[in-house]
C-alpha cells in the first residue's frame, strides 16, 4: 500500500475507534476491522494462499483495501459501528467505487457470503 494511503487508513481506523468509544460502545464491542486483501505498495494483490479465483478489481495501484464485514454484521452495535467506519474512511480520503462492495450495497448484496467493503484512496 502506498504511504499516503496507509497513513490515511491508520488515521481513519484510529478515528473510528475514538468515535465509537465516544458513542459509548464498550471497548470490547468495538469491532476491529479486518482485511484479507490489501494492495501492495507498487500494486498487485496480497494473496498468501494463491487462491483468489479472479483478479480483484483495482488492486493494482497500492490504493485499495477490502474490509470484511462479517464481524460487523454479527455485532449488536452494527448500525453505529458501520456508520462510524464509513464516516472516518470518507473523512480520510477513501471512497467506495463498487456499489455492491460498499456501505450502499443492497440488503441482498450485504447478505452474500464474503460481503466486504472495497475502499479506494482518492487522496485528501
Ligand atoms: Zn477489493
Walk me through the structure:
The protein has helices spanning 3-22, 70-73, 78-91, 107-110; strands at 37-38, 64-68, 94-95, 116-121. It has four helices and four strands; from the N terminus they run αββααβαβ. 34% of the residues lie in helices and 12% in strands. The protein has one domain (3-47, 57-121). A four-stranded antiparallel β-sheet has the order 1-2-4-3. It is an alpha+beta fold and 124 residues long. The chain binds zinc ion. Residues 37, 56-57, 59, 64, 66, 118 line the site of zinc ion (ZN).
Key terms:
alpha+beta, 4 helices, 4-stranded antiparallel sheet, 12% strand, 124 residues, 4 strands, globular, binds zinc ion
Concise account of the structure shown:
With 124 residues, the chain is an alpha+beta fold. The chain has one domain. 34% of the residues lie in helices and 12% in strands.
Low-confidence stretches: none
**In percent, how much strand structure appears in the residues?**
5-15%
The strand order across the widest sheet is 1-2-4-3
* Percent range of helical residues: 25-40%
- Mean residue pLDDT: 87
Contiguous helical run count:
4
Radius of gyration: 14 Å
Produce the secondary structure layout.
Blueprint: H1 3-22, E1 37-38, E2 64-68, H2 70-73, H3 78-91, E3 94-95, H4 107-110, E4 116-121
Antiparallel strand pairs: 1-2, 2-4, 3-4
Helix pairs in contact: 1-3
The structure holds zinc ion.
